[in-house]
Amino acid sequence: MRAVVCRRPSAPGELEVAELDRPAVTDDGLLVRVHASSANPVDLYALSPVGHILRRRRPVVVGTDFAGTVEAIGRRVTAFEPGDEVFGAARGSFAEYVSIAASGGVVRKPPGVSFQDAATLPVAASTALQALRDHGRIESGQRVLVNGASGGVGTFAVQIARSFGAEVTAVCSTRNVDLVRAIGAGMVIDYTRDDFTRSGERYDLMLDVAGNRSWSDCTRMLGKGATYVGVGAAGVQHGKGGSRAAVAHFLEMRLLSIGSGRRVVALFIAKLRKDDLEFLGRLVESRRVKPVIERSYELAGIPEALRRIDEGHAQGKLAIVVQR
Ligand SMILES: NC(=O)c1ccc[n+]([C@@H]2O[C@H](COP(=O)([O-])OP(=O)(O)OC[C@H]3O[C@@H](n4cnc5c(N)ncnc54)[C@H](OP(=O)(O)O)[C@@H]3O)[C@@H](O)[C@H]2O)c1
Questions:
Q1: Which of 93, 123, 146, 205 is the most buried (most CB within 10 A)?
Q2: Ligand 1 mean position to 313 CA, how many Å?
Q3: Is residue 251 domain-shared with residue 235, that is, in the same domain?
Q4: DSSP states along 278-321
C-alpha cells in the first residue's frame, strides 16, 4: 500500500510516499481501506524528535483522521462487518489502509455524509464539541467568544455552539470574516484591526483556540461566573515555542485565575469517543454542521498540506483524498 512516512524527525517537506505492507488485522481489530483523511496540527507531532521516538512502528506513518470501508475484521469482532463505511481516528491514517481496535475511535459513517466530510470530523470536531459541551458546559442563550474561529477546530466550534443555541462572536483575520459569518457567527472581530479584549463586551464562555492572550486580557471580557477553555496555544504546533511554552501559558492562566470567580479549563486534551463521533456524524447528516474545507490534497500533496497547517492559517479543514 502507499503511505506517507517520516523516516526521521524533520520538516513536512521531507515526508515521502512509500510502498509498505498493509497493517496486520488483530483479533479485536479492523483493517480499513482509507478513502479520505484530513490534516491536523497533531499530525506534526510525529515529525518532532519526541513524537518520533514515541512511535514504535518504523517507518513512522503520519496521519490521524480517516474515513473508509472495512476491508477485514479480526476473529473476535462482532460490531463491524467487511463493507461497513466507517470513520474515526488512528495513528498512520495517511495510508491506503489503517488498522484500529474495533473498540477504539471508529464508528459507522452516516450514509448521507461523504467520506471527505466524515474525515474532517474526528480530531477537530471532537475537540470543539468536548471544549464547548463538556468543559465549557455551554447552554442555550449564552454569549460565547471563539478566539481562532476560522481553522479546523474554530469552524466546528462556531457551528456547534450555534447548534446548542448560543450567540457566537468569532475572532479571525480579515480574509476569514465573511466565512465565519456565513457559518453562524453573529458578531465577527477582525484581530488585525481590533482588540477583542477591549470591545467592552462580556461573554459567558471563551473558547481559546489561538491561545495568544494573557489572563489579564481575558478578564476584561469574562465576568464573574464565566468560563475560559484553553484549546490551543500560540506556537505549539508551528514549532516556534514548543510544548513547554504552551504548558507555561496554561499554567499561568490557571494560577492567575485562582480566586477570580471565573472557571478556567486549561489545557484539556480531546479524547476520541464513539458516542461523540456518532453525535458529530448526526450533526453533519442533519446539516446543522457543514465542514468547511479549504482544499483537498492527494497523498503526494500531504507535505504541502502539513506545511500549510504548520503556518497556522488554514481556512477550515484541509482534506486528503487517499483512494476512491
Ligand atoms: N486540546 C486539544 O485536544 C486540541 C485538539 C486539536 C487541536 N488543538 C490545538 O488547537 C489549535 C488549533 O487547531 P486547528 O486544528 O484549528 O488549527 P488550524 O486548522 O491550523 O487553524 C489555525 C487557525 O488559527 C487562526 N489564528 C492564527 N493566529 C491567530 C490569532 N492571532 N488570533 C486568532 N486566530 C488566529 C488562523 O486564522 P487566521 O488565518 O484568520 O489567522 C487559523 O484559522 C492548535 O494549537 C492545536 O494544536 C488542541
A1: 146
A2: 7
A3: yes
A4: HHHHHHHHTTS----EEEEEEGGGHHHHHHHHHHT---SEEEEE
Q: Is 206 in the pocket of ligand 1 (CB under 6 A)?
A: no
Rounded CA separation 43/62 (Å): 6
- Minimal-distance CA residue to ligand 1 atom 46: 232
Rounded to whole angstroms, the maximal C-alpha distance in the chain is 61
C-beta 152 within 6 A of ligand 1: yes
User: Which of 174, 178, 237, 304 for mutating ligand 1's site (highest number of atoms within 8 Å of CB)?
Assistant: 237
Q: Which of 318, 270, 324, 278 is nearest to 296 (CA)?
A: 318
267, three cell numbers? 489545557
Are residues 105 and 157 both part of a single domain?
no
Domain span including residue 213: 123-265
CB distance 279 to ligand 1 below 6 Å: no
pTM metric for this prediction: 0.96
CA 123 – CA 125 distance, rounded (Å)? 6
**Where residue 195 sits, what CATH number does that domain have?**
3.40.50.720
- How far, in Å, from the CA of 210 to the mean position of ligand 1? 5
Q: What would the pLDDT profile of 57-114 be if each residue is shown by its tens digit? A: 889 999 999 999 999 999 999 999 999 999 999 999 999 999 999 999 999 999 999 9
Taking the C-alpha atoms of residue 96 and residue 152, their distance in angstroms, rounded to an integer, is 23
154 lines ligand 1 (CB under 6 A): yes
How far apart are the two ends of the chain, measured CA to CA in Å?
Answer: 14
